[in-house]
Amino acid sequence: QKEVEQNSGPLSVPEGAIASLNCTYSDRGSQSFFWYRQYSGKSPELIMFIYSNGDKEDGRFTAQLNKASQYVSLLIRDSQPSDSATYLCAVRTGGSYIPTFGRGTSLIVHP
Amino acid sequence: DAGVIQSPRHEVTEMGQEVTLRCKPISGHDYLFWYRQTMMRGLELLIYFNNNVPIDDSGMPEDRFSAKMPNASFSTLKIQPSEPRDSAVYFCALSQGAGETQYFGPGTRLLVL
Fold first, then answer.
1. In sequence order, which ranges of A1-111 are alpha helices (DSSP H)?
2. Radius of gyration of chain B measured on its C-alpha atoms
C-alpha cells in the first residue's frame, strides 16, 4: 500500500464550481500535510499546509484534515480556468521528517 | 522556483554519457533535496542534505547516480553512465526544516536517447 494516495484524475469541473481534491495516507502518526500546485511544465509550489484536524481557509482554498479517517482534502471554491493544474498532496509521516508526495490529481476547469 | 537556480534547464544526451545536473540555492536554507519526476512514478525523492551533509540517499536508484554538496551554495547530481530510463525532470528543492515547506527550483528536463 502506497503511503500517500491520490486519484490521478483528471477531475473536470465547470468554471465557478467547487473542486474537491482528496488524498489518503496510511501512517496514523502523520503530522504535517501539504498541498502543492504544479502547472504543466513548471515546478510544484505550495498552496497550503495544515497540521490540525478541521478546516483551514485561505482565500478560495480550504484544506480539510481528518486524522481519524486518514484523509486530507483541498477544496477550491469559484474554480477558475487558471486553477487547471496538477495538485500534489505531501504528508510528513510519523517515521520520517521528510514529507512523502502523492502522484497528484489533474484538475481541469473548463469555461 | 524563487531562491533556486538549476542548470541546465534542458539536457539531451546519448546513452552512456555522463550527465551532471547543478543546483544553486540563492537563499539560505538548511535542507536541500533532489527529486525526479516522471509520468509513471510521479515525484520521487532521490537524496537530501542537511547543512551540506547527505542524510538519506536511499532513493538513489542505482550506483550510477551520485550527488554532492561541497558548500551551501552548490549541489550536483551526476548520472554516469546515463540510460534512456533516466529521462525525467529533475528538481532541486530547499526547506528551512526537514518537515517544512519545500521550495522547488525550475527543474532540469533530461532526455537520454
1. none
2. 13
In three-state secondary structure terms, A26 is: coil
For residue B107, list chain A residues with Cβ-Cβ distance below 8 A: 43
- The Cα B33–Cα B18 span in angstroms is 21
Q: How far apart are CA A34 and CA A32, in angstroms?
A: 7
CB-based contacts of B102: which residues, under 8 Å, 6+ apart? Answer: A44, A46, A90, A99, B33, B93, B94, B95
Residues 6+ apart with CB under 8 A from A23: A4, A5, A6, A33, A71, A72, A73, A74, A89, A91, A102
Cβ-defined contact of A98 to B105 (cutoff 8 Å): no
Q: Kindly determine whether residue B91 and residue A98, on different chains, have CB atoms separated by under 8 Å.
A: no
| Inter-chain CB proximity A31 and B99 less than 8 Å | yes
Find out whether B36 and B20 touch, Cβ atoms under 8 Å. Answer: no
E strands, chain A, in order: 4-6, 11-14, 19-25, 32-38, 45-50, 54-58, 61-66, 71-76, 85-92, 100-101, 105-110
A-chain residues near B1 (CB < 8 A): 42-43, 45
- pLDDT tens track of chain B, all 113 residues? 458 999 999 999 999 999 999 999 877 788 999 999 999 889 999 999 999 999 999 999 889 999 999 998 999 999 999 999 999 999 999 998 888 889 999 999 999 99
Rounded Cα distance between B64 and B30, Å, is 26
